[in-house]
Backbone:
């Protein structure tokens, strides 16, 4: 029996490139499928200061947050009044569970942020204050002589 000839490095590189292309397409499809969850996690991990959020929630901010969760679930249950397609829960309860899952994941990402010390930088949105002392130089008649 005659041994099969070696296909060569060029053939191997072509097969590798095709395989890597297929892998990239599959990863892009998976990323698009989970894009909203990825953005949700990125926002809560990098855009929200969990230490400040924890202080606000502890000082009474939890009550409006819980009210918002319930109101969103009520509105969603009126917009889409159908039982859960995968678990069969009645209409308001599965929406409440889903919205609660989102809120819980936000708290989980805040906890992760604190554990790994990923606190985002503070961004000051207040305009800079200008000194308005004598001689501030825009000449509207109240300079001291």
Residues:
């Amino acid at each position: 029996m005659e041994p099969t000839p070696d296909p060569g490095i060029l053939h191997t590189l072509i097969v590798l490139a095709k395989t890597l292309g297929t892998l990239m397409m599959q990863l892009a499809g998976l990323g698009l499928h989970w894009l909203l969850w990825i953005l949700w996690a990125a926002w809560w991990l990098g855009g929200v200061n969990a230490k400040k959020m924890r202080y606000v929630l502890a000082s009474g901010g939890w009550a409006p947050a819980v009210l918002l969760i319930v109101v969103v679930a009520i509105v969603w249950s009126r917009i889409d009044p159908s039982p859960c397609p995968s678990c069969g829960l009645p209409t308001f309860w599965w929406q409440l569970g889903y919205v609660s899952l989102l809120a819980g994941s936000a708290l989980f990402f805040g906890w992760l942020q604190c554990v790994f010390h990923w606190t985002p930088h503070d961004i000051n949105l207040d305009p800079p204050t200008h000194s308005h002392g004598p001689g501030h130089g825009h000449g509207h008649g109240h300079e001291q002589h």
User: Anything to note?
Assistant: The mean pLDDT is 87. The two ends are 111 Å apart (CA to CA). Residues 36-115 form one domain.
